[in-house]
Amino acid sequence: MADFHQNGNIATLHNLRTRSLDELTYELETFSQNRKMSLVLPCLYSELETAAMPRILGELAKVPYLHRIIIGLDRADEQQYRHAKEFFKGLNQNHIVIWNDSPRMLALGAKLSALGLAPSEPGKGKNVWTSIGYLIACEDSAVMAIHDCDIVTYTNELLARLIYPVANVNFPYQIAKGYYARVGQNKLNGRVSRLLVSPLLIALKKVVGDRDYIDYLRSFRYPLSGEFAMRTTILPDLRIPSDWGLEIGILSEAWRNLAPRAVCQVEIADQYDHKHQDLSEEDASAGLSRMSTDICKAVFRKLAAEGIIFTPNVFRTLKATYYRCALDVLEAYYSDAKMNGLTIDRHKEERAIELFAENLMRAGNSFLDNPHETPFIPTWNRVHSADPEFLSELHAAAAADEAEYV
Question: What is the superkingdom listed in this entry's lineage (predicted)?
Answer without folding.
Answer: Bacteria
